[in-house]
Amino acid sequence: MHNQDIIKRMKQFSAEQLNQVQAIIARYPEGKQKSALIPLLHLAQETFGGWLDTETMDYIASLLTIKPIEVYEVASFYSMFHMKPVGKHVLEVCQTGPCMLNGSDEIIDYIKQKLGIEAGQTTADGLFTLKPVECLGACGYAPMMQLGKHYKEFLTKDKIDQIIEDLRNSI
Amino acid sequence: MGIQLLLEKSKVENIRLYDVYRREGGYRSVEKALKMSPDDIVEEVKKSGLRGRGGAGFPTGMKWSFLAKPEGVPRHLVCNADESEPGTFKDRYLMEFLPHLLIEGLIVSSYALGSNATYIYIRGEYAWIPDILEQAIAEAKANGWLGKNILGTGFDCEIYVQRGAGAYICGEETALIESLEGKRGNPRIKPPFPAIQGLWMRPTVVNNVETLAAVVPIINMGGDEYAKIGVGKSTGTKLLSVCGNVNKPGVYEIDMTISVEEFIYSDAYCGGIPNGKKLKACIPGGSSVPILPANLLLKTAKGETRMMNYESLADGGFATGSMMGSGGFIVLDESQCIVRHTMSLARFYNHESCGQCSPCREGTGWMYKILKNIEYGHGKMSDIDLLWDVQRKIEGNTICPLGDAAAWPVAAAIRHFRDEFEWHINNPVEAQTRNYGLAHYADPIHVPTV
Ligand SMILES: Cc1cc2nc3c(=O)[nH]c(=O)nc-3n(C[C@H](O)[C@H](O)[C@H](O)COP(=O)(O)O)c2cc1C
Ligand code: SF4
Ligand code: FES
């Protein structure tokens, strides 16, 4: 009981974030605060370690006065929400047809070999997760990956080396 | 380069900033529109012949005129910026480089439809774009184009940006509405249509980013003038996003009077195929539309030059034609493997099926599995007919068109490239080391029999 209280308190937005939450809810008509669910899940995932655990989802449910199940079913539907822990940096490489035409398979294989992991896995140091994903709307700038908020486009093996080195140095 | 109505100013330095955009003639359409009645604006859009740029090509003015207007019930305009159809990245370009053009179009359209709260639903992965849009919204508001009592007309309007979170299906308008209500993106059974009961069960219009941006030139020049650009029912200009094997991938604005051949080979557009390779095939309107072999792409089955417009791309129906779709133009050169590419698209649709209807949920999985078997050398000759059978059972038997969108690429690949599938099955070992190549597809005219 006592422990849970502590965890609960850890999973709290800051005062500033709570203002942001109120501003988001105010975008919708009275009583339609559930519309804020996806924006709040994004905020929660960014704030609480890159993935959504049950505590976090319950907290979001309480903020929106909806049932926890309503949060779980939404969080598990959308591919950007991680239901399991992920590495500090998630390399989300597009593998769909148009990217494949420009060598995304080779890029994915190269990352696997370089980091010694398979698709969906995280390196032992917890730094990198490789997540092949479907079309990200950058097909003309292929091969490409999403890295946090931004895209890395026209990837080559050299660029991958550089990106990974930069991320390693950024700790 | 032809007429530019949308991208004309995209290269102007700092056009993202309000002052620059305004100096270049921005927001004139709002000044003009707010002096007109909402119905007159709908009329101008009808006259323009504008067709929805999200994929289906439905006439925008007609869609607007269907919006129910019950007394005392708020109405909403929702801008569809989910853009997740493989091959499509034109809306991203508009939002990133010309955010004020979209906001301007949204203000005029919101006024025409009576939407006091308008939402832009943008795919979650475009995570840096909401900041750009919100900046433009704040600038527009600071300059009196948004907010309360705009230009003293008594019209109030706010625009909000809502991020999705990774789900192609949320581009389908009723799934988008569900998502905007904070739910899973499960498409609704229609009717009721969104025009009657949409967002929060209120009358709602959902339009694509490019559609709403096109309202700006329509109001500025008048619907009749806009309709003079282009040919037949393909009026105005269309954005194309080009990817795959071309020298100059990217976003282009065309006036729909050029030929497919010119579009691919001219330096003003795609600039031809890299490394001197030959054109093998093309998916002209986003991954959901039928793939065409080079010969049928450049000329119709009747032997006419195929043009870059709605009618010509669809000439011959699905037997020998394709569709303009979302404008995602995917080019495959002679070194590409049709089986592998089709398999990749099948995986995409299987991943993106929301799972509500069994033909789509199960069928997309079967198609992916069968294609994977063929691609990796475990296919049987009967698999081709099985694939054909599965796709036929999906098409038309589902709640939303994602089922069709998954079936069509597989059907077209078999229809036009059956020999390549057979070669894979007959030569499982060789198919792991080399591609089938061009075969007869570059022949002047090859009319398939299926
Ligand atoms: C599976 C599926 C995905 C779709 N994705 C998009 C999309 O990303 N963007 C879009 O504008 N329309 C998309 N549409 C079409 C929308 O349902 C709707 O027709 C469109 O937003 C209407 O706008 P328009 O008339 O301006 O084209 C999709 C449809 C389906 C069936
Ligand atoms: S066709 Fe597919 S995506 Fe559309 S509602 Fe049915 S299962 Fe969902
Ligand atoms: S296919 Fe990779 S970004 Fe579209």
Descriptive terms for the model:
heterodimer, A: 171 residues, alpha+beta, Arc Repressor Mutant, subunit A, Glutaredoxin, 2 domains, four-stranded mixed sheet, B: 450 residues, alpha/beta, Rossmann fold, Ubiquitin-like (UB roll), de novo design (two linked rop proteins), 3 domains, five-stranded mixed sheet, 19 helices, 11 strands, 42% helix, globular, disordered C terminus, binds flavin mononucleotide, binds iron/sulfur cluster, binds FE2/S2 (inorganic) cluster
Q: Can you characterise this structure?
A:
The complex is a heterodimer of chains A (171) and B (450). Chain A is α+β, with helices and mostly antiparallel strands. Chain A has two domains: 3-77, Arc Repressor Mutant, subunit A; 89-169, Glutaredoxin (3-Layer(aba) Sandwich), CATH 3.40.30.10. Chain A has eight helices and four strands, in the order H-H-H-H-H-E-H-H-E-E-E-H. Chain A has helices at residues 2-10, 15-25, 37-47, 54-64, 68-75, 97-100, 104-115, 157-169, and strands at 89-94, 128-133, 145-147, 150-152. Chain A has a four-stranded mixed β-sheet with strand order 2-1-3-4, covered by helices on one side. In chain A, helix 3 (37-47) crosses helix 4 (54-64) and helix 4 (54-64) packs across helix 5 (68-75). The longest helix of chain A has 13 residues, at 157-169. By secondary structure, chain B is of the alpha/beta class. Chain B folds into three domains: 18-228, Rossmann fold; 234-333, Ubiquitin-like (UB roll), CATH 3.10.20.600; 338-433, de novo design (two linked rop proteins) (Up-down Bundle), CATH 1.20.1440. Chain B is 42% helix and 12% strand. Chain B contains 19 helices and eleven strands. Chain B has helices at residues 18-23, 28-33, 38-48, 60-65, 90-97, 99-113, 129-142, 173-180, 209-221, 223-228, 260-265, 294-298, 310-314, 317-320, 338-352, 358-375, 382-394, 402-426, 430-433, and strands at 76-81, 117-122, 158-163, 204-208, 230-231, 234-235, 238-244, 250-254, 279-283, 292-293, 328-333. Chain B has a five-stranded mixed β-sheet. In chain B, strands 3-2-1-4 form a four-stranded parallel β-sheet, with helices on both faces. In chain B, strand 9 (279-283) and strand 10 (292-293) form a beta hairpin. Chain B is globular and about 75 Å long. Classes of the chains: A alpha+beta (171), B alpha/beta (450). Chains A and B meet through helix 3, helix 5 and helix 6 of A and strand 3, strand 7, strand 11 and helix 15 of B. The structure holds flavin mononucleotide, iron/sulfur cluster and FE2/S2 (inorganic) cluster.
